[in-house]
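Hi L., both proteins are below.
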Amino acid sequence: MQFDYVIVGGGSAGSVLANRLSEDPTTSVCLLEAGGGGNSLIVRMPAAVVAALPGRPRINNWAFETVPQPGLNGRKGYQPRGRALGGSSAINAMLYIRGQRQDYDGWAELGCEGWDWNSVLPYFKRAENNELGADDLHGDSGPLQVSDQKAPRPITLSFIEAAQQLQHRPTDDFNRGDNEGVGLYQVTQFHDSGKNGERCSSAVGYLFPVMDRPNLTVITHAQVKRLTFDGSRATGIACDAKGKGTEIAITARREVLVCAGALKTPQLLQVSGIGDAADLTPHGIDVRHELPGVGKNLQDHLDFTLTHRTKDTDNFGIGLAGTVQLLKHILRWRESGVSMAATPFAEGAAFLKTSSDLDRPDIQLHFTIAMVDDHARKLHYGYGYSCHICKLRPESRGTVGLNCADPMAAPAIDPGFLSDARDLDTMIKGARMTRDILQAPALAKYQHKEMFGTDTAETDADWERHIRARADTIYHPVGTCKMGTDDMSVVDPELRIRGLEGLRVVDASVMPTLVSGNTNAPTIMIAEKAADMIKAAAL
């Protein structure tokens, strides 16, 4: 099979490219996705993400784990990533966050010309169909539906009030370039009458409406095994289609576009012979193109959670009353889309400074209407709430490498959590601030019992013990094929692999530094901008 463009990965970026590149009816596009269709009830109903996130069983989820982390007492971390059309946007909390203006201006200062805030803002707007309408910073006609939450719980509103009682300022928009403040997250969720309250993954927003285009071919359950080349030019891919063990070749007349994400993209490059020779030769892989930055520069948001039990049952929990209530909410969601079944779980937001002399927030809070323990892999009877704390711009760096030469095997993921002591210092400050908010009068009335002993933590050593024992990712890996102009850059500012032809990377792996917030909206923006670059190169 031959096409103009072959896209590897149907996630947040790949779905965008499939739509935008196939807008030209004379251009043929093939999209390959290792997972399934991404349109089941578990995807469409937001609250059903609790079935996919734990990875037991692996529903729409690669469910990777890290190598043992010295900074986390030698524990292996958990790395859920989406495996379906829509990718991780099919299993995430739907939170629509762009990050800070300074994040993108910083990319430009690192040599990524054209990626400053003013340059990327039009692509955020082009993607967006915001329920609140268009203005100078938001769009209302894009494929990605962005909504206010349908039915935030009273306890979430009390969290926002509690933060304000401690003089944290309220905000009604976290996406104007300055995200400091406390409020409710907006979510990637439908707000039109036909699908009101349903998840709007990138596949649902971008891909499914155009699946009938005759110039677009979508192949699911297609595991790409390696890239193919003619000299220094990428010519296509070899894949195991439908998991039948039969290798097929798909060729690209113009470009191969790798959109497999920050963990799978470097792995695909490495098994194809692209990367640091020291990473490839131990696995018997011939070096096709020496590129030492592949798999380096991994950055992720480390997350620590404060969790309380409550006697309030107007949230998610395990119990007879809650089960009956949830069934009623599911029925309401099917009728109108407005119920607790439409929740993102992480309803309350805060972006705060741990020091008044900082120029922008350095921690992010997610207030969640459930007891969260080990990514919902450990369940507790009863009802509760949690507040997540992460450092927005970690100093620690990690790697993605190979466990073996088998492309079907999981990659070796080493985030290097807390390998830089500055991250621990900020996490401790953030945990103290968060406990103060949870103990403020507006929220203290909900408390029944703190679950893990953080209520008695006094010294930095106490907090360090708690953080090292329970912290883990909040699902934002980036940077492993970073964009730039230095020797460790993998792609240039046009997202072309340095030193090769006909090959680009378009996903979160190209971010040179982690943005100050959730990564789905920025990844979609990257793909929107890349689509224009790819089209321009074809002229």
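That was the first. Here is the second:
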Amino acid sequence: MASRGLRTSLAIALFAALLVPPAGAAVTASDLMPATRTSSQPAQGPRYYPEFTYERLYVEMRDGVELAVDLWRPVTPKGVEVPVILTLTPYRVLNRALDVNETDLPNDDAKLFVPKGYAYARADVRGTYGSGGCWDYGGIKERHDGYDLVEWFGTREWSNGKVAMTGGSYDGTTANAAAIERPPHLATIVPVSAISRWWGYAYQQGTRSTYSGESVDIDPPSDTPTDFMFGYGFLPPPNPSDLSRPDQIAMRWDMCDRDEKFLKGYSTEPDYDDFWIERDYLRKADKVDVPVLVAHGLLDFNVKTWEGTAWFQALNTEKILVAGQWPHANPRTYWPGWNLLLERWFERWLYGVRNGVENEPAVQVQSSDGQWYTGERWGEGQKRTFGLGEGEATFLDDGALTETEMLRGPASDRFVRVDLEDAKDLRLQGRPILRLRASSDAPSTHFVAVLAVVAPNGSLRVISRAFMNARYRDSLAKGEDLEPGRAYDLRLEFIDKDFVVADDHHLALFIASSSNTWVAPDENRATNTIDLSRSRLELRLARTS
């Protein structure tokens, strides 16, 4: 959700803005299409329409708040009804400088699908850009807004009654949020790099993800909710007169419950209470009754990969997971097959074209070797367990240790290194689990684990990381102090991966109690001890197909 990718694309969008035709003109789409278009071009279903229209709408939600919506529709023969692809976004504020006019197709999805007979709608999240109201990041009002927008578009006289929601990052998260509300006219969702549980975005087993040390180049989620609450959600609407009532604008400067949301997003003791339960879509994934195409990067350090894989696993509907070796980004940049899959997906679920996409392998994943593999389930392969050796290991949490320091050499008084020489010639898929038997001399402490692969020359490549606030060892609902000196069984979860370990490589495990690269440290400078003989690493092995 951090806006690094969007900021990067701002310059590209600014250049594109120079090519916008005069406002109010019917725009020919052929010049906006990619030079090479791949399409399944079904005999029936979507057709090519060279012109489209644009309009800005204000749609009233159930509580009276008005959301601003930009709508592009293909110019079709009279009586032709089209489906709607909807994105509910807070990011529009980043493009305020580009508001010369709005008669250009705004992004790759619109450029691909509007000429093929789909309407494309982009709505501003309440409290951002052109919409009224006060931002409710991830909350029930945002969930209801998705429902209300879907139903509004699904009942227009020009609509065929089928609406899809899609988008990347926050824009895909709003699709997940709407889907658990089950609007009748929702036909499918395509969440890309999206959150399924807001608590899991900010926290990892009770530790707070953060920018610090070496992590500035890998874009973890420390700018949320600050940017969202007091940046995107505080700026005035670009055209205040377009909103029908003064109170729509007044709500933009109302503090509402911004302080609560801010504090919840940065707590060092993040109890999983009603605030987070309301923003946990994963716990209601079984209510989703439309087909879902999930896309997520296996190198996404912002919206962690398990936000997508856990969502996919929890769904009980038609579904496909596309995951590959890319960061917090859209897969079309990294996988040439994305556009064709997406076209077939929308043809099937928005136009009813029986193109067989539902018979595609449910899991389509690019592993660390660059190869693509298929399967029907994610992360449910054979379990393999590796012991960590004998004896005990004791280390100090100084609150300043970084990952780079851990990877530089052998164990020290601040971390443990365990080389798993027999962990080789395998492909792991899913979520590695580290089971530690550990004790501390403090009432609270963190445990950090880094899983890496070791090449024949000794060089290291990190596979995944795990972090735990030991006060949340038994439950996320309420932290509970440790009894100093008592041994506990801890279950550390690594972020989901698909990784090939060659037969001349092996795995290594680094264990510590701080990683200033990735998470805010515990306040205690604890001394911690691990019983290696009663600890183990569990992997799930993938079946190559």
